[in-house]
Write a structure and sequence with these properties.
Layout: E1 7-14, E2 19-24, E3 34-40, E4 51-53, E5 57-60, E6 68-77, E7 80-81, E8 85-90
Length: about 120
Amino acid sequence: DRPDPPRALRLSGLSGTSLSLAWDPGWDGGLAQHFLLRADGPDAPPPPAHLVTSGFSLTLGGLRPDTPYDVTVHARNARGDSAPVRLRAVTSALPEAPPPVWEAPEAPPGGGEDP
């Protein structure tokens, strides 16, 4: 049989350019299975193809900061694909560069005091 969809899809971490996801596998249909992931965002290029893993977690990289993504995960075995499960997640905003720190020049040797 085809596999059941993954269960409990969740965000396990994020950054400005990545989303880390984890899930619990559904019934595998009695055959070896793997999982296909894809992230689609508005005005954002998707990853070049589905990312595939046989594990139960994966980090999607190369994403745009502060952008919502619809992540789709489905299981696949030799008999076919499961129904997809979806999650909407937003990458974090990249921190702004800190302002330059002004440092006072060092005092010249000998105290630098005039008589």
